[in-house]
Amino acid sequence: MNRTFRNRVHAGEVLAGAVREHRFPEPLVILGIPRGGVAVAAEMARRLGAPLGVIVARKLRAPHQPELAIGAVTASGATYVDQSIVSEAGADERYLAREKELQVGEARRREEAFDGVHRPALEGATVVVVDDGIATGSTAIAALRSVRGAGAARVVLAVPVAHPRAIGLLRNEADDIVCPLVDPGLYAVGQYYLDFRQVEDDEVVRLLRSAHEADPAPAQRNPATIRRDGIALSAVLSLPAGEPPHPCVVFAHGLGSSKESPRNVVIAEALVDAGIAALLFDLSGHGASSRDPRGDAAFIDDIGAAWSWAAGHPAIDRERMGIAGSSLGGVAVIEALRRGFVRPAAMVLRAPPVAPGMLTDLPAGTLIVIGERDPLARTIRATLPPGSSAKIEQVRGAGHLFEEPGALEEAVRLTVDWFVTNIVPAPSPAAGRG
Q1: Distance (Å, rounded) from C-alpha 285 to C-alpha 292?
Q2: Per-residue pLDDT tens for 283-297?
Q3: Which of 26, 31, 119, 398 is the most exposed place for a label (fewest CB within 10 A)?
């Protein structure tokens, strides 16, 4: 049986990356459906720097068959009733009214017990409703209706896995759905988790309190313009919390992309979380940068200019700099390295379309990240000379763009771990006693 997620925290990592790629309008609010959905939502909120809350949706039970759900309701009274089974279950209007009143009261009681003080404001926000998986969708529909009724500007459903039938129903309720895995073979959400232990009420309370007590120091995003030879390169330097100077990674995006590349942005944010500054910039002729008449040949000069700019920045430790190149940006990074334009202490190349001989004499501290199913994987393995100091890491089951569930998250982990190991200063040894 394929277990896609290690646990709910891992599912939250995957969903956070997927939500980042959508770049929804801010402010962003994350709401978990208790209990398992809160464990997923808590990790998402931590990684996205968004407030966390709960939305309790209670099942409406069929008469004489309490295990059969005929709909769902929330604390606000937002309701979904599955008309296809109401008559068959023998639930008339009087029964539905009584059951709804009972479950609304219970939903209010549970929301108060979970989070009666720190409920985030929903009006005007992009609200992401999260569960740990969806088989039928009844509770999710009620939750989405409740959020929309509270004045959310945009209503998003985010779940790690769902049945396609449920996704079809939910598309009528949500403005957007983020679901990495839609499987018609779903019969139980737990089949997709290695660890699917039950989440207790006290764990929900602990997760919410931890989120509210956290005091995140947001990264500083500093727009900048890098100039060379009459060309203006648009850039953003993100600085982590703490005292400078910081180690830094300079990013070179692929052809046709920009500094807003979703994959590079996700990696850059993870680096900043790890205490490493990140410089994202638009190559000439891309994004907001001006065009160089030499076209692709100018990219090497662009990379050299960005490197020199970062090395001269007062918040950057020029002795602890790395570079990350994706796709054709990785090829340009290799050439910039050979010409002496960059001197990284560590380098990560993601899926570079290399030619024979291009990977010779790579410096120590070089990591190549490639999807196992990427057609370039075989070429890269064949091109890397025996005994090379460079290292190849293949992301299992991934293609060229790392779009498969968990693939981007694994590429992020490999990249961040590599730079942390190679350019983050080691902790100072404890002072000896005199």
Answers
A1: 6
A2: 999 999 999 999 888
A3: 26
